[in-house]
């Protein structure tokens, strides 16, 4: 197999956004559109600063802010919560960088890379599975941003947008209108593509960091310190209500925190394909992900601790906090939240499903149209209901995404030794085509990787009664179990089925 990124290349071609790609010869037309072809060297302009800014833009969002509240609510002290979040992101950084390597080396997006381990037809399954998860998150983030707009307008009009919930929807007309207005804002960036998203992330990142630090300063000054919550001991400590139960909470919490960005660990090639070098993608991700996540978790913990002193209650939700701050502060704070939500949503929850849906029928659906499909599904998932089930959902889909990551890593590093023949990724009868486009080693390994977590998942969502303790324990480690089981199964099946 060739270690070349472009092989026998003819000419360059621009996609619908004007980005230049390598045009390959001898490939099957129905397996590609211009968006999926290898990124040309001239289009690989993202340095480590750009990639770090991309991550800061994604990290600073309301769901991230709320992660610490879930952990502290389960009994952790603030420092235990922050360290759990930091550790989880150091862990997920490893597959993030490893899978990102393929994007930088070959300039290909996530669905095309999947063809190496699943085949051109089989790759559609994990690509769409990743896309559906992102559609859910897209809807949740759009709801959060729309609700911030609703709070601003409702405050300025002295409750003029308040009203009774609409039938079927369960939210009032003002809330739905603000949600749809924020949804429509996303369509501008979907229309203008990845470079418009990078532009937004680059300029928004310093603004969002400044707003976070300003919020921290406001809390410190108004509370005369950060309050007693930061000195409150863990509920798992000796003499506390949950003494000795730390590890039973820690492991499923760690799995959930890993699951938070496990989605991006899969489709990170969608971004690293624009990186100037492997050093840029490595440094950009290492600087942009774990530390900002831990910093933002600390800001959330410290500010919430201060709200106990300032308002007499712990206020975790930043929208509720902005509402309580009043005056012009509410507008500044909620504007920052709207920007934060937009930057996260576009990068984390639009690009991956857009590529995934495009991969279903590349000649009929380009990246822009895939983005529009994503936006439509995000509305239909009723995100204002889904948002109340984030923590359980994080563990549930990590049980699916862990196996996909395990298969990709086993294929790219252990089986292929990082060497891919790019042209064959676009051929029905190439070396990756398997049986009529299906690499059954990948498909079966995915099923095998999910199976150990299935009993725990069914019990957690109430579809079955109590399950055995061993399956509950396995489900607590869902992402890790799926990754290793599927990876090992893939290597064994590839040896048997793909002689």
From TrEMBL:
CDD domains: SLC-NCS1sbd_YbbW-like. The chain crosses the membrane at residues 53-73, 85-108, 128-153, 173-190, 202-221, 249-268, 289-310, 330-351, 371-387, 393-415, 436-454, 474-493. Its main location: membrane. It is a multi-pass membrane protein. Keywords: Membrane, Transmembrane, Transmembrane helix. It holds the Pfam family Transp_cyt_pur. The keyword Phosphoprotein does not apply. It is found in: Membrane. NCBIfam families: ncs1. PANTHER family: NCS1 FAMILY PURINE/PYRIMIDINE TRANSPORTER, PURINE-URACIL PERMEASE NCS1. Belongs to the purine-cytosine permease (2.A.39) family. This is Nitrate reductase. The lineage of its organism: Bacteria, Pseudomonadati, Pseudomonadota, Alphaproteobacteria, Hyphomicrobiales.
């Amino acid at each position: 197999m060739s270690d070349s990124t472009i092989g026998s290349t003819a000419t360059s071609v621009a996609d619908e956004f004007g980005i230049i790609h390598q045009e390959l010869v001898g490939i099957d037309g129905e397996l590609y559109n211009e968006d999926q072809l290898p990124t040309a060297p001239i289009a690989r302009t993202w340095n480590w600063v750009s990639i770090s800014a991309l991550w800061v833009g994604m990290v600073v969002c309301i769901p991230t802010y709320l992660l610490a509240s879930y952990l502290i609510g389960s009994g952790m002290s603030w420092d235990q919560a922050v360290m759990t979040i930091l550790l989880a992101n150091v862990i997920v950084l490893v597959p993030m960088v490893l899978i990102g390597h393929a994007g930088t080396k070959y300039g290909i997006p996530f669905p095309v890379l999947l063809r190496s381990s699943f085949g051109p037809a089989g790759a559609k399954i994990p690509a769409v599975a990743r896309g559906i998860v992102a559609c859910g998150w897209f809807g949740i983030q759009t709801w959060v941003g729309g609700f911030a707009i609703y709070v601003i307008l409702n405050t300025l009009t002295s409750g003029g947008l308040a009203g009774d919930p609409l039938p079927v929807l369960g939210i009032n007309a003002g809330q739905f209108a603000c949600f749809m207005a924020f949804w429509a804002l996303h369509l501008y960036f979907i229309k203008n593509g990845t470079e418009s998203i990078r532009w937004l992330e680059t300029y928004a990142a310093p603004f969002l960091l400044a707003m976070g630090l300003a919020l921290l300063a406001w809390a410190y000054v108004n509370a005369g310190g950060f309050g007693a919550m930061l000195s409150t001991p863990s509920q798992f400590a000796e003499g506390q209500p949950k003494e000795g139960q730390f590890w039973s909470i820690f492991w499923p919490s760690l799995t959930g925190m890993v699951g938070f960005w496990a989605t991006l660990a899969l489709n990170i090639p969608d971004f690293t394909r624009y990186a100037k070098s492997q050093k840029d993608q490595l440094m950009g991700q290492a600087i942009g992900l774990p530390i900002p996540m831990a910093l933002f978790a600390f800001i959330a913990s410290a500010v919430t601790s201060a709200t106990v002193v300032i308002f007499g209650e712990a206020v975790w939700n930043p929208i509720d906090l902005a509402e309580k701050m009043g005056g012009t502060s509410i507008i500044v704070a909620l504007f920052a939240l709207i920007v934060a939500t937009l930057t996260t949503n576009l990068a984390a929850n639009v690009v991956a499903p857009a590529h995934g849906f495009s991969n279903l029928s590349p000649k009929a659906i380009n990246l822009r149209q895939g983005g529009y499909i994503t936006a439509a599904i995000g509305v239909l998932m009723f995100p204002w209901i889904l948002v109340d089930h984030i923590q359980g959902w994080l563990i549930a889909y990590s049980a699916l995404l862990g196996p996909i990551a395990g298969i990709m890593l086993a294929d790219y590093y252990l089986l292929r030794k990082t060497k891919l023949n790019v042209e064959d990724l676009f051929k029905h009868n190439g070396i990756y085509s398997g049986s009529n486009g299906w690499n059954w080693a990948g498909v079966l390994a995915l099923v095998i990787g999910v199976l150990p977590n299935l009993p725990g998942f069914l019990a957690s969502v109430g579809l079955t009664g109590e399950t055995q303790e061993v399956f509950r324990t396995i489900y607590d480690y869902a992402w890790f179990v799926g990754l290793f089981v599927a990876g090992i199964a893939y290597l064994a099946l590839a040896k048997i089925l793909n002689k």
